[in-house]
User: Fold Sugar/nucleoside kinase (Ribokinase family) from Murimonas intestini.
Amino acid sequence: MGASLYDVVCAGHAVVDVLIKGQVREMDQRDGDLEQAVISTGGDALNEAIVLSRLGLKSAFLGRVGEDLAGELIKAELNRNHVDASGIVVDKEVDTTISVIPVGQDKKHHFWCHQGGNNRICLEMMKEDYINKAKVLNIGSIVPGSDMDFEGVAEVCARARKNRVITSADAVLTGPFRDSPDYSVNLERLCSLLKELDYFLPSEDEALEITGKDNTEEALLELLNMGAGQAVIKLGKKGCLIYEDNKFETVLGYPVRVADTVGAGDNFVAGFTAGLSRGWSLKQCAMFANAAAALSVTQKGAVKAASDFMTVRKFMEENGKGDGYVWNW
Assistant:
């Protein structure tokens, strides 16, 4: 492979998010006012591509949208953030997914989605002429137990790795995985893809549900047994768990005042894959990812607080993190 055109290509989900705050429990009973309403783009891969661009990297987004206003908004937002959106597939047969996210007093969030059909990860959106020009391919996200084309995407990842492209993915669960009547088949399909991933980046809940283990250390080892080249488990405000040289380490997070947590995991993945594209060590990637995620929750919206590289590094230094490492950029 020659010189890379992209630092990271992000393939997968794109949605339009509507974040609302107010008496949302009564919305189906009466008219009223909302304290706040914000329309933004979302979806794991889209968020990650935008954050990477704001960090100063060259990113591209591969995905599918409907021929509708929501799809146009997604393309416009990618272009506004200097993400290469030329590989997007526009499908007249589907609607673009829209999510309504009520933000509660506890700052936690739940998603109410109209799944338009554009987010099934399939070969059509995995354009290898883009992927093979990247340092890193990140899939956002694997949906265990879904109808995504696990085997086909695994084949794309295998070919990318032969071209020295690093492969990574995060996950999202839309329901119980291990209790499904199709569990054995779903597990086999998931493992076919994990075996072609250099890095798998699930949350704590996702890792425990996928593996059936009782704690994160056992879950991480099981993910490696299932085929992942390396697994990093996101622990929310606690940081993340890594495993290197036969030792576990919890790479600690950063104390911040939380506005909301929408997109924190996507900012983590963007920070982590940014590090991969720069050849950093596993722990460096984890420290930087934690910092990107921490900054992201200080403002409402998935990517509103996304900062450039030097801002993230300054935040790390102010919190006494990162000394003794070479942070080439």
Remarks:
- The mean pLDDT is 93.
- The first strand starts at residue 6 and ends at 12.
